[in-house]
Amino acid sequence: MIGANHEEILELIWLMEEENERINEDSLLKKTDFPAAKDKLYTLKEEDYVIITDTKVELTRKGRDKAKLIIRRHRLAERLLNDVLEVKEDTVDSSACEFEHFLDEEVTTSICTLLGHPVSCPHGKPIPPGDCCEKASKEIRPVVMPLSDLRSGDKARVSYIVTKHHERLDRLSSMGLLPGTQICLHQRQPAFVIQMDETQIALDDAIARDIYVRLV
Q1: Closest by alpha carbon to 198, among 216, 184, 212?
Q2: Mean pLDDT of the 126-153 span
Q3: SS (H, E, C) the chain
Q4: Distance between start and end Cα atoms, the chain
Q5: Contact present, 119 and 99 (Cβ < 8 Å)
Q6: Contact between residue 137 and residue 119 where contact means Cβ atoms under 8 Å apart
Q7: φ, ψ for residue 141 (rounded to 5)?
Q8: CA–CA separation, 66 vs 61, rounded Å?
């Protein structure tokens, strides 16, 4: 059983590989800022997560599988914090670091499904896919999707709204279009027209892409 600092080393190796950085013991330890990092690195070697030679440090297959899960949890947490919770950009990464160490596979899968199986984090880095992503790619339609992907006649429930324009969010809120609201799409052109209770609302394409819904 490895701890959070061990996981951070595995994550760091993955990130350095992504940037095509030279990875050896010295270059890796220079990027760590927690006590006894060298001891933890060698524990990873003993547990068969990494291979250490005079010239390089690399992940074993076991280490790569573990690092992939850590990166996946971190980047999904970033998407959740950024897109749904609208956490300030300068705190998203540090908050995601906390998330990644306690999210289990079930919760991670739920977050991924909620977000519509995103392929990249807010910084454009790829999110390693999970089993749920492969399953979703084989299905006719994803569970969660932008409102703009609905077909005429589809009924759906609003899951979350992703927008940096607060005036747009205020407008949607004032119309009662909030997470949990059930809608029905009446038409797609020339504007998206949705039925919400007894009210019909017309939305342009940009707004429809900001609203994520779950089919019902």
Answers
A1: 184
A2: 81
A3: CCCHHHHHHHHHHHHHHHCCCCCCHHHHHHCCCCCCHHHHHHHHHHCCCEEECCCCEEECHHHHHHHHHHHHHHHHHHHHHHHHCCCCHHHHHHHHHHHHCCCCHHHHHHHHHHCCCCCECCCCCECCCCHHHHHHHHCCCCCEEEHHHCCCCCEEEEEEECCCCHHHHHHHHHCCCCCCCEEEEEECCCCEEEEECCEEEEECHHHHHHEEEEEC
A4: 41
A5: no
A6: no
A7: -145, 150
A8: 9
Cβ neighbours of 139 (radius 10 Å) = 8
pLDDT digits (tens, 9 = 90+) for 46-76: 999 999 999 999 999 999 999 999 999 999 9
- Taking residue 6's Cβ as centre, other Cβ atoms within 10 Å add up to 19
Residues contacting residue 49 through CB under 8 Å, at least 6 positions apart? 2, 6, 10, 59, 60, 62, 63, 66
